[in-house]
Specification:
Layout (H helix, E strand, L loop, with lengths): L1 E3 L2 H11 L7 E5 L11 E3 L8 H11 L4 E3 L2 H5 L2 H7 L4 E2 L7 H4 L1 H10 L7 E4 L2 H14 L5 E5 L8 E4 L2 H10 L10 E5 L4 E9 L4 E3 L4 E2 L2 E3 L3 E4 L4 E4 L8 H18 L6 E10 L2 E8 L6 H5 L7 H9 L14 E9 L14 E2 L1 H5 L4 E5 L2 E4 L2 E4 L3 E9 L2 H12 L3 E2 L4 E2 L6 H10 L2
Parallel strand pairs: 1-2, 1-4, 2-3, 4-5
Antiparallel strand pairs: 6-9, 7-8, 7-9, 10-11, 10-16, 12-15, 13-14, 15-18, 16-17, 18-23, 18-25, 19-24, 20-23, 21-22
Helix pairs in contact: 2-4, 7-8
């Protein structure tokens, strides 16, 4: 049983589905695209990601051998704790361990205590002292970049960039729009460099780091526009190659070891969002689960039986499993409703064309997110609708395959939006290195 609804959960379901030991997969709430052309997958819509008891009722009916809690709201609500208390084998961090994501103030203070490289930060619960703080910053450095971040969960949209005093004040006042999540907020120095993502699966003590990735968070090409949940990703990210050992030692090992030393061992997938700065790799954030869309580009590379890996984590025996990954490059492009991440209400219900044709494209996987089936047709039901993942021997091949398949998909009324530049940094690196 997998808890979540997007393309990330579709990817996880397919990973479990490749295991000969797995006979049936229930995704709650899932989406209507997941069971399409799958004999193993079914969905259960009657649940609420913020109400663990609704998932417990589904688990009591289906009696799953593994409950994989893949979504951040469900983790923050204590779904893992409730499942375990009722006798189910739940994979993912407890509510206390998942605090590394759902409470950004706590997370930053934890990092400082573990000597994890992190930007300078301050936290506030009122606008006036926060405005005075940024006034002081911009008096000393008028061109400074800061991020104003809601301390709680905001579906990846709670980190707002400011490049002037006026902009910072505007972003501080916008924290109110996030409700309880923005009641406490952080002001962090903006880091200069290139972002990357790394994922470690851990039983609380031992861990394995998968291929690196690079997310593209903003809605428009070349990192312009509003923050989104993610518009595409590549894996592996070439930028992490020379510093992989440093990333492990300073940003992953210290976090997993630190959680264990605090009496809240972290079991599950730990997401490191990092930045390669002039001073070395630094932490941007930790999340308590697979990222979306990075999962779509990273997890398919795992050749070892994923169910076996997860079972080993649950048994505290990850060290006994030899995890293999392939040598392919993958590019994930997210297709979204026009207007996302803001108002896309006019797109809801519109027909989506070309999904089946895209699925038939060689070296491509199509993963569903905000899709529902009505009158026998696929229709838009959310912001991000679909992830198209192309694979190849290198970034050029993988990117070509992804965009060739995405070109087959459309939303009625020209309402499909996607970035056309996913992977551009590694395209330049690859072409330079192959000269």
């Amino acid at each position: 049983m997998i808890i979540g609804s997007g393309a990330r959960e579709d990817t996880i379901a397919k990973a479990y589905g490749r295991s000969p030991r797995v006979e049936r997969i229930v995704v709650a709430p899932g989406n209507d695209f997941m069971p399409f052309k799958s004999e193993k997958i079914s969905i259960e819509k009657k649940c609420d990601l913020k109400k663990p008891e609704t998932f417990l009722e589904i688990a009591k009916v289906h009696k799953p051998d593994i409950v994989d809690v893949a979504q951040d709201d469900a983790l923050a609500a204590g779904t893992v704790d409730m499942m375990r208390a009722n006798g189910f084998r739940a994979f993912g961090p407890t509510k206390a361990a998942a605090r590394i994501e759902w409470d950004k103030r706590w997370s930053r203070e934890f990092m400082a205590g573990q000597k994890i490289p992190t930007p300078r930060f301050a936290y506030y619960e009122a606008e006036e002292p926060a405005i005075e703080y940024v006034k002081g910053l911009y008096t000393m450095e008028p061109q400074k970049v800061v991020y104003v971040k809601a301390a709680g969960l905001c579906a990846g949209k709670g980190a707002l960039k400011a490049t002037s005093f006026e902009s910072a004040v505007e972003k501080i006042k916008k924290m109110k729009s996030f409700g309880e999540a923005g009641k406490t907020f952080l002001i962090e120095d903006g880091l200069i460099g290139e972002e990357f993502s790394c994922y470690a699966i851990t039983d609380g003590e031992d861990y394995h780091i998968f291929k690196s990735a690079q997310d593209n968070k903003t809605v428009f090409n070349f990192d312009e526009g509003d923050q989104t949940g993610g518009m595409g990703a590549i894996s592996p990210a070439m930028v992490t190659g020379p510093i992989s050992k440093q990333i492990e030692e300073t940003l992953i090992s210290r976090a997993i070891g630190g959680m264990a030393s605090k009496g809240t061992p972290y079991q599950g997938v730990l997401y490191l969002g990092g930045m390669l700065t002039e001073g070395g790799p630094m932490n941007v954030e930790y999340n308590a689960r697979w990222g979306d869309p990075e999962c779509q580009a990273v997890l398919p590379s795992v050749k070892t039986d994923y169910a076996e890996i997860v079972m080993a984590c649950l048994d505290g025996k990850l060290k006994s499993v030899h995890i293999e990954e392939d040598d392919k490059t993958r590019v994930c492009v997210a297709g979204a409703s026009r207007g996302y991440p803001n108002d896309y209400s006019k797109v809801k219900g519109k027909r989506i064309y070309g999904l089946e044709e895209a699925m038939e494209t060689e070296n491509v996987t199509v993963l569903g997110a905000g899709i529902e089936v009505k009158d026998g047709n696929f229709r838009a039901a959310g912001g991000r609708l679909v992830s198209v993942v192309g694979e190849g021997r290198n970034i050029i091949e993988a990117r070509h395959n992804a965009y060739s398949a995405m070109a087959l998909i459309s939303v009625e009324g020209n309402n499909l939006h996607y970035r056309t530049d996913i992977g551009w940094r590694d395209v330049e690196r690859f072409l330079t290195s192959s000269r």
